Amino acid sequence: MDVFGSFALLLAFVCAAYAVVGGIAAIITRHPLLVKSARQAGMATCGLIFLATFSLEYLFFTDNFSISYVVSHSNRDLPTFYKIAALWSGMEGSLLFWSFLLAIYVLSVLIAYRNKNGELMPYVGVVMAGVQLFFLTLNNFVESPFKALAAPGAGGVMSFIARADGNGLNPLLQYPEMVIHPPNLYSGYTGFTIPFAFALGALLARYPGEKWIHLTRKWAMIAWMFQSMGILLGAHWAYAVLGWGGYWGWDPVENASLLPWLTGTAFLHSVMMQEKRGMMKVWNVWLVFCTFLLCMLGTFLTRSGVVSSVHAFAQSNIGPWFVAFMGITLAVCLGAYLKNRDYLASENQLDSVISRESSFLFNNLLFLVACIAVLSGTLFPVFSEWFTGNRISVGAPYFNRVNIPVGLLILFLTGVGPLLAWRKTSRESLKRNFGWPLFTGFAAGAVAFIFGFRPPYALASLILCVFVAATISLEFYRGAKVIRARSGASFAACAIDLTMRNTRRYGGYIIHIGMVFVFIGLAGTAFNRDVQKTVQVGDSMQIGPYTLVLQGADTKPERNYTAQRLLVEVLRGNKPMMMLFPEKRNFITNKENGTMVAIYSTLKEDLYVVFAGIDPDTQIPVIHAYLNPLVKWIWFGGVTVVFGTLIALLPNRRSVLVLAPAPQPAVQPLPHAVAASRILREGHD
Amino acid sequence: MTRRRTLIATFVLLGLAMLPLIVPVGAQQLSDRAKKIGSQLKCMCGSCSMTAAGCSHPGGEFSGPCPTAKGMLQEVDQHSAKGETDEQIMQAFVQEYGTTVYAEPPKSGFSLVAWAMPTVYLVLGALVVIFVISRWVKKSALEPAGSTATAKAISPELLERAKKLAERETED
To answer: How far is B112 from chain A (nearest CA, A)?
Structure first.
């Protein structure tokens, strides 16, 4: 099967190369057969990548320890569930997984538009195949996952060998979320290839109008949704597994995942300027280019070791390949832009400073500032070493200080933007729209202040969260009220109807609400507390209102690891509440350790209990307990964001035919009992 | 009487000073100052990128502060016992480990660039946005005012164009 997989990868490389060369030839000659063959080569590339990926998974499932990658990342006792995750647990497999996910996107695009947009698709096909070709080069010639295990035999001749068992999977990855976090994040990274291919393709083809924007909008939203889910699942994994009480450490690899998310978010907003007003065409194209390049940069940072990171499980010497690819991509983008920039001539006009357009410009500015600040902070250790010879670390405290104010400004605009009208907002409209939300926000802030919610950033965040929630609620209320006046249905039904009539707008509002929840959760960080204590059976420790009593400890042998478990009773006041079982796991094969945190989570706070292990000095168990307020809001916000995105991806319900009893005139009754009245879409989209 | 009190106080202080040598390291409670300064120092164990005060050493046999982080925090307490200021303590660590020991760039020398950059981006960006907005507003004001035309003067082509524009601006 390893030969089969290896061969499939090689054939995929050949097909991708043909899809690029044949595609370019098809663009030049416009020969229909060439166009068709290039497209089919693109589809074959995808099919072959699928085969190669399934081959590698098969090797994991059949415990084929003659393959180096399988030996390094699996063992016989590894549960089947984690054998799936073993695919992306190392460099070679994760790069193949990249190709696999990209192939799903590429195949979907090639099938979805096989008979559409004939002028544009050859260009898009070439760009997509070009990206695939780069990754297939790595898969085949740099980091092949199908390398057979070899050792010097008699006379020093290398011969193939097979091991009895493998080294096992990194314990940190043996957690259910690790089976879904990387696929989500990678789906985000790879997904931005599609808007990139359409943007570059449209620029190269001088494709008329805003159609490429319409075509790519949904793909960009899908990629963005996966990227958001990937980031949040990664944060949740860090929270539940690493046992440090936090969820975001501003590690370079975490930062790398945030960068394309920030520019992608900016794009999803600024694209509306182009769709509605024909503005910012150059900006949008470059935002898509930058988002794609940042995806590449993120992958490069994760794997090259250029910046030190805790995500050290997938590093090698592939950095120069990524640098070269990013250089070539940038050159192609720049060349295409310089050659065809007149195609991007925009109708840049503003009727008023106070308008939705202005808010989008500031929105984009803030996302870009956040992105560049995170990027420059991440790379600052490298820069400082170049310029001064000393490597200066940039850790979490710096990123928090720099990004919290920018984040709050973005939150402010989240509330302001939707209330401003396109073109011009009158003073009366400002008063009408902002008065009530502002009052609500400040009133909530005053109440919170009285109840001890004092840290300035947390307080500002709370005020803004309430303000944004109020503005969005007002939007739903007003829209639903209009429908209710016509249909007489319940308010909830009207709000759902309103949402389904304009899924993008109201789905967007739901996403904003999700972000409000996330900010509420982040504000809770200001009140985090923790206590660490050596405890023996019967000892207790206090954190906030909770008393933790160590009732005992046991050992739980499992197939792949042995867990040392503490039995911790939680009391509130003197009232027993529950038992928590924090674990320390020792993995048998690779002798590595893992933590399983016990969390009692409510909307108000998380009681987070870690069995830190046996103190090496005292040989007594150590419990590290944290009280983290409002954390659950972050995960709840993440779910809301995904829900909102799914709503926004749905097609609009264009119009509704309502059969309503016709008004009965007093003098001349109509001959019909009912009359059809067509309720059209609201005009305020 | 006063001399006796002074003697007792001296013994108590000496006893307190000896405490770190008697009490095992693990059971020792770190001072708030060690935690405060430790949060500005990077744990130098080489396998985690956490602060010395926040080190939980994921994947370690003991996920408390690792021996390196513990040692650093004890060192803070030792410097503290000598009466050194926060700045002096930080400098002692820089002498020992180099500038990589900072959890965040110091606000001096080349590191100031790191602190200045985000503000510079924001200010420059805001200036550019303000410039762009004012330019686009002016451009709009200079445009021939179609709005002043009377209803009679609107050609069918212009009306069609306006309809398309309205459709685009109100569609989602």
So the answer is: 11
Q: Which residues of chain A neighbour B59 with C-beta distances below 8 Å? A: 171-172, 592-594
Whether A103 is in a domain gets the answer yes
* Residues B26 and A616: beta-carbon distance below 8 Å: yes
State whether A249 and B49 contact (CB < 8 Å): yes
pLDDT digit string, tens, across residues A347-372: 777 777 778 888 888 999 999 999 99
From the list A259, A234, A222, A261, the residue with the least C-alpha distance to A104 is: A222
What is the pTM assigned to this prediction?
0.86
CB contact under 8 A, B103 and A534: no
B114 has a chain A CB within 8 A of its CB: yes
In this prediction, residue B148 carries a pLDDT of 47
Residue from A315, A365, A501 whose CB has the most chain B CBs within 10 Å, to mutate? A365
Residue A4 forms part of a structural domain: yes
Range of the domain at B142: 111-170
A451-488: per-residue pLDDT in tens?
A: 888 889 999 999 999 999 999 999 999 999 999 988 88
- DSSP annotation string for A351-420: S-SSSHHHHHHHHHHHHHHHHHHHHHHHHHHHHHHHHHSSPPP--HHHHHHHHHHHHHHHHHHHHHGGGS
Question: Is A79 part of any domain?
Answer: yes
- Here the ipTM equals 0.77
Q: What part of A 557-616 touches B (C-beta under 8 Å)?
A: 584, 592-595, 610, 612-616
Judge whether A344 lies within some domain.
no
| Residue B18 pLDDT grade (very low, low, confident, very high; cuts 50, 70, 90) | very low
Provide the mean pLDDT of chain A. 87
**What is the average pLDDT score of chain B?**
74
